[in-house]
Design goal:
By secondary structure, the chain is of the alpha/beta class. Helices cover about 35% and strands about 25% of the residues. α4 packs parallel to α5 and α5 packs parallel to α10.
């Protein structure tokens, strides 16, 4: 059979890695796909002329739209990133009857509903394995490997930068700002790290996972997002003393009233496997009713790990080129007409346990007053610990772990505690999950 010709948009980190993998492993890939795969046309404004495999690209230019208009190209691989012009390029490729492979989580999270509808109407495939957790095949696992299951919940470390920062803070007692600067120096974090440290990147990925798990439309705007920039080294240390690790988790859970979609720092028991995922690595824990909990672990970023997922998608698309479009694996796991309008709960309605740290005046009765405020709202305390004051300090850290309660009720209690004269500053609140199977 004739080789399938692809168009490659972007020759940066992931694009260069994809080029390397496609050319280095060409024979093995052809054995799996059933035919050869050639890069007919690539577009990039800048690229390293020493990239491995560049000599095997038939044509290179700087006009991405010329690639999606090229009649020889059957599959467009979008590795530019961002919202625009990626959206316009992908929609144009679909209109031209071309299949699309993308690693662009922001594009899928915000515009995926529109893109998949267009692809469905045109009878083409949009593949996006590399958009979530880099080289970890979590999209395929949830969409296909766990298709027999009623997915109950997903919890994932899906941003390596945040995980690296929290790991360094725990293992070396370092402050957030210091570790962030090192992450930027090492290339783990961008010059503007907002997407990573404020949870936006993880929220893009969680939006996709929730749609795959529960058969709902993509709804990024309903994903609660809280970053790690306010995590203090002392809270990391206190959590460790209590037998917990702080991880920045994306959590999607099906409950009686709807779907929870939330990204935030979370205390989890140190004995859980996912609590021991350190550095820049990613891990996703999925709980299905038939299979129970399953853990997927690996490199969540980087040129070759992400390229591994991109090329796997290309192989999948090549395999489906001659198949009936109506019998392909649905983009969001469920048949398009079977997507459910299940409500996504506001954070105030989500129920979880909490770690609280209060800076309280060191005198009798303050602890009892704080506990009374919690008790008045039906918030039960699991553990409470008062730390020793430093020399000359008038206030001491008061650490509490609570049982599960709705967030709205906890908001009310925290507001009342912060209003006490004996309390200095804001109450530190970090949510807790047991992630029990």
């Amino acid at each position: 059979m004739k080789p399938v010709k692809i168009g490659l948009l972007g020759l940066g980190t992931v694009g260069g890695g994809t080029l390397t993998v496609l050319t280095r492993n060409a024979a093995e890939i052809a054995r799996r796909a059933g035919r050869g795969i050639r890069i007919a046309h690539a577009a990039a404004r800048e690229y390293d002329p020493a990239l491995s495999g560049l000599d095997q690209v038939e044509r290179i230019g700087d006009d991405a739209f010329a690639v999606v208009e090229d009649p020889e190209v059957a599959i467009v691989v979008e590795l530019i990133g961002g919202y625009s012009p990626a959206r316009e390029l992908v929609l144009r490729a679909i209109a031209n009857g071309k299949h699309v492979v993308t690693a662009n989580k922001a594009l899928i999270a915000l515009h995926g509903n529109e893109i998949f509808a267009a692809a469905q109407e045109r009878g083409v495939v949009v593949a996006f394995e590399a958009a979530v957790a880099g080289g970890v095949p979590i999209v395929k696992a949830v969409r296909e490997g766990l298709a027999a299951n009623h997915i109950e919940w997903i919890a994932g470390i899906i941003n390596g930068t945040g995980n690296f920062i929290l790991t360094e803070m725990r293992e070396k007692g370092r402050d957030f700002a210091e570790v962030l600067a090192e992450a930027q120096a090492l290339g783990y974090a961008e010059a503007d790290p907002t997407f990573d440290v404020e949870g936006i990147d993880a929220a893009h990925k969680l939006t996709i996972l929730a749609a795959l798990a529960f058969g709902i439309p993509l709804q990024f705007d309903k994903t609660f997002t809280e970053g790690i920039s306010r995590i203090d080294a002392q809270d990391v240390a206190y959590a460790d003393e209590l037998g917990y690790r702080i991880k920045h988790l994306g959590i999607a859970r099906r409950v009686a009233d709807g779907i929870e979609m939330r990204v935030h720092p979370t205390l989890i028991p140190h004995r859980r496997l996912i609590a021991n995922v350190n550095g820049v690595m990613n891990a996703v824990l999925v709980k299905g009713d038939a299979v129970g909990p399953t853990l997927y672990y690996g490199a969540g970023a980087g040129a070759l790990p992400t390229a591994s997922a991109v090329v796997a998608d290309i192989v999948d698309v090549v395999r489906t080129l001659t198949s009936d479009p109506h019998n392909r694996v649905p983009h969001l796991a469920f048949q398009p007409k079977a997507l459910a309008d299940i409500p996504v709960l506001p954070m105030s309605e989500v129920e979880t346990a909490y770690y609280l740290r209060v800076s309280a005046l060191d005198k009798p009765g303050v602890m009892a007053r704080v506990a009374g405020i919690l008790g008045d709202r039906g918030i039960s305390i699991e553990a409470i610990k008062q730390k020793e004051p430093g020399e000359g300090d008038t206030h001491v850290p008061l650490i509490m772990l609570t049982h599960r309660v709705r967030e709205g009720r906890m908001d009310e209690a925290i507001a009342e505690i912060e209003a006490l004269e004996a309390i200095k500053g804001d109450v530190v609140r970090i949510r807790m999950e047991t992630l029990a199977g």
